[in-house]
Amino acid sequence: MGRTARVGFLRQVLYIVAKDFRAELRTKELFNSMFLFALLALVIFNFSFAGKMPVRILAGAMWVSFLFASVLGLNRSFVKEHEKGSIEGLLVIPCDRSVIYFGKLLGNLLFIFLVEIVSLPLISVFFSRNEILQKPLQLSGILVLGSLAISSVGTILSAITVNTRTRELLLPILLFPLVLPVLIGAVEVTAYIFQPKGTISQWIRLIAIYDIIFLLVPYLLFDYVVEE
Amino acid sequence: MEAIIEIKDLEKVFGHKKALRGVNLKIYEGEFLSLFGPNGAGKTTLLKSIATILRPTRGKIYFRGEPLDDDSLVLRESIGLVSHNSLLYDDLTAYENLLFYARMYGVNDHRERINYLLHQVGLYHRKDDTVRTFSRGMLQRLAIARAILHDPPILLLDEPYTGLDAQAARILDELIENLKDGKRTFIMTSHDLDKGFEHATRLAILFYGEVVFDRRKEETSIEEFEGEFWKWVGQQG
């Protein structure tokens, strides 16, 4: 031995993210399908509401499109690890197994956030809403908070459903009800950013608490989830 | 002499199916244990349990005398796993695959180590090609390089010859022979009696989750062993 040195938790998490990102850069299959799906959903909303819609509906349409697009990425997240059995390669690496969860979560969050950021200028054009691009920091903040919740729940559910035959169906069935509180909160906060009215601190608190819970629970349970 | 791995009363249950029924084995440093058995005998389950991929339902596994409980990091640092799946990523190149695993294992001087191993397995000229374009034999050679990146003292080989043509199998034979240094311990599951017998220093047969035959190679002959193997496989019908 003597050929190796223990690697830190965060470093291993980042290596998994880098690995997934490198593979995605080569194929672009995940980003392209997620982005196209989000785009199509937004186009449909645009036609359904004839262009102009109230801010709350606009915020809802945005988040529903992002959530549906996220499912595509989340579904593939662990499928890729199972295709050539590479999940077993990860499981025998000397690391806390939650490293795998956080690596996958961060990768999913990155892809979802990228899709959202690229979609924003298009949403602004489709719905003739300049205010979408006028508050980029606030908007990025709620996008990260909301997407973190979708990614954290979605990643653990993706790991749970990957070995089932109906995983494409099962993941959204389990995910949508679980992220509903976050979706409502994210819509409220996004609508407020577009048109400040009332208070939103309770919604931000709700999403933040939700994020913390769904970062902690998988951290404790992931070892059992990945066991066959 | 202390066993490098000791398995005591190991049981693994999947739903209502008992895959392992009280396996007891002591594996010593430098041994090459070839583990045979019909499909469903529990060979892969046993290997996965040793690799800490599966949690035993009952019983214990000891590594250098210490029980593997929740902290199995020391054992995981010491094992390399070669499966019939390559455990590689199709969309990464051979070099990128090894780089990822080398970083995760914290391999010192990983660039030199990766290049050295790619030369060893005869894939250096393909190091920048995505694994998707590799043949089964090339994948298995790269899988060996991945498994020994961190120079593990224990190598677990799960049906490594599955799907290989004669030439690829010969190359794999050479690679395994080169890895035998008298100190490294091997546990290999195989359906191929000749290959398993050729490499082994010890032979075992697993049948319905139980070890029904366990002997050192010098205590038996290929004919006697084959007879024993078919006796058990025949029972399966």
Description:
The complex is a heterodimer of chains A (228) and B (237). Chain A is mainly α and 228 residues long. In chain A, helix 3 (55-83) packs antiparallel against helix 5 (98-126), helix 3 (55-83) packs antiparallel against helix 7 (167-194) and helix 6 runs parallel beside helix 8. Chain A has one domain (9-226). Chain A contains 8 helices and no strands. The two termini of chain A are 30 Å apart. With 237 residues, chain B is of the alpha/beta class. Chain B has a single domain (5-236), classed as P-loop containing nucleotide triphosphate hydrolases (Rossmann fold). Chain B has 8 helices and 10 strands. A 6-stranded mixed beta sheet of chain B has the order 6-7-8-3-9-10, sandwiched between helices. In chain B, helix 3 (94-105) crosses helix 4 and helix 5 runs parallel beside helix 6. The A-B interface holds A 1, 3-7, 11-12, 15-16, 18-19, 22-24, 26-27, 80, 83-86, 88-95, 227-228 and B 14, 48, 51-55, 73-74, 76-79, 81, 83, 85-92, 96, 100-101, 103-108, 113, 130, 146, 150-151, 153.
